Amino acid sequence: MTSTTTGHTAAPIPTWALDLFIDGKPEPGRDAPVTVFDPATELELAAVPQADVEQVDRAVLAARRAFDSGAWTALGARGRARLMHRLADELERRSEELAAAITYECGTPIAQSRVGQVKMPLDILRSYADLAAVDRTEPLGVDLGPMPSDSLVNHQPVGVVAVIPAYNYPLVLALRTMGGALAAGCTVVIAPSPRAPLATLMLAESIAAADFPPGVVNIVLGGPSVGRRLTSHPEIDKIGFTGSRQVGEQIMQQAAPSLKGVTLELGGKTPTVVLPGVELAPLVRRMHLKYLMNAGQACAAPSRLLVHRDQHDEFVELSAAAYTKIRTGDPWHPKTIVGPLIGPEHRRRVEEMVDAAVRDGAVVAAGGGRPEIEKGWFMNPVLLDHVAPKAPIAQEEIFGPVGVLLTYEDVDDAVALANDVPYGLAADVFSATTAEGIGVAKRLRAGTVYVNGGGAFRLDAPFGGFKASGIGREYGEWGVREFLEPQHIQWSLC
Measured between alpha carbons, how far is 255 from 262 in angstroms, rounded to an integer? Predict the structure, then answer.
């Protein structure tokens, strides 16, 4: 059993920003409203009118005018950097309000919201602001061929970028793509998820307060029809999407006729490989906490736990004890670890996957069921044992508080199991020595590998995946270059 928290007093409900943001001005959406619920109470937070096709088109054309007129690029690298830092300052002043908004609409426990949902995206924006000021001109030097010449490589912004983030980390996912695009000199249209749009709509006031030129950042809201219009619009030059593999495939198809570039982060099925000889007692609770943050609704949640067969029983015993100390429930309680899932249909999907695994022979080793909380889309975290490596719950992204325990025979078997999924976003390795961990890390088909816990998330390192986890990289210099086109300029010396 896991412990539960109930009855804690929530923060006052913010005054929601319900308008779209087009060409520097707020305006109400003209299509049917989308209802946003508090997943912890099931109460309605807001009904937000969505954009109609004409409003989406105007947002795109505003971004196009701002790009083609040079309203953003004319500020120069340092000018863009200065405005991006100013935007971060404006958002920082509202950080507590933003954290509350995300806890209300996503159900993320407030302690996690303040750090992972608000502080982190502000750090991301500041990191990209610094990168905006970098001169990337690359002299190639003189070529003394039959016609002597000199060359340089310039980098041009790709143009207008559609930013389509997922619901689980709304500001992180919006600002990491927007930040890279703005640093490169692009203009953007953001389409937040209708499941959790409120914190992203709140960006508009801060963008206006930071004196961004009209049209540089636009925000529209809508479901699949808005997404299709953006991904197929002739004036959109590139798409930055975070979400499911299935929707990523659709976006590639919609972008293909106009050969738009895409950056896709499509989730993962992250393994935690515990190598033989590792002392389990100090690490087991930490391993579980990592995939249970945000109720498991995280693309890199390391929910596949690979343990040597000789340590299986000890791992199960330690896990059962650790689960009793993981609080599920009220996201406003400072000690809550696992809050609610985003909605009833998503909870039903996760529970059905767990039930199907148990019918096929899996055993609940810890947790399971629902907490005794009258309202809210909660489920207790659950650890499944005796799962076949090819079972759907061991292969598919769950996006819920579910861990899967697998055992292996030797290190080669562990590497093969870790790689034997369609995804390759991230991996964790715990080893007796750092050298051993790095050696195994280099054999894993994953974009990021954390050895013995890694460290703080690095904003100067590339993040993205192999295989079905997506295309392209975010963060750092890699995240800026996704939105730049290299241009070779050559001149004669004769």
Answer: 8
